[in-house]
Amino acid sequence: MVKDGIPFVALPLIVSIAFAYFGYWIVAVPLFALAAFMVFFFRNPSRSIPDEPNIVVSAADGKVTRIEETEDGMLVSVFLSPLDVHVNRSPIAGEVISIKRFKGKKRPATSNEASSTNERNQLTIKGQSITVVCTQIVGIMARRIVCWPKEGDRLDRGQLFGLIRFGSRTDLLLPAHVSINVEVGDRVRGGETIIAKY
Predict the structure, then answer these.
(1) By CB distance 3.0 to 4.6 Å, which of 17, 55, 139, 155 could disulfide with 109?
(2) Residue-level pLDDT at 45
(3) Are residues 105 and 17 part of one domain?
(4) From CA 82, how far away is CA 92, in angstroms rounded?
């Protein structure tokens, strides 16, 4: 579990124990269930990061909902339901050359409009031969974007860099010349599924 989840687990768990001690099981049980769900939500399972050259891995777990050629490159969107792993991983190895936060709405993350209208955090990562823009986007349930690195930091492929609470979308903007390795509807795993090759 990522450390950001500790307060969300500890608070309902402590209150649950207190109510249970005094015999208020009707309150203790739901609070314990909430603490258990938070452990599940903030989980951070180990992943086998591919080591082959010239690949881009998924930045998130979830379902591919959009693959589109835009004027800026190839856009691949992954929707994360509340049941998916919500940590984000770097799609390539490289330097974080830009981090931009955009204020916006909290519309459903399944909508394509969410990429431009919702609150989001945009990381530009420059690798040895490719630059990727990774955008964390909130949804209806999401209330905070967490991003740990700063501009100038270096990330390894598959390295954790943040998360979104609770339900969201992650977009990858890739150069137009890449070969996309997934299709709309595919389930992907952050840091493990190869999204594109170049």
Answers:
(1) 139
(2) 85
(3) no
(4) 25
pLDDT in tens, 43-57: 888 899 999 999 999
Among the listed residues 58, 116, 168, 179, the single catalytic one is 168
In the chain, the number of structural domains is 2
168 in catalytic set? yes
Residue 113 has pLDDT above 80, yes or no: no
Show the domain range for 12.
Answer: 3-41
165 and 193 share one domain: yes
| 46 in a structural domain | no
177 shares its domain with 142: yes
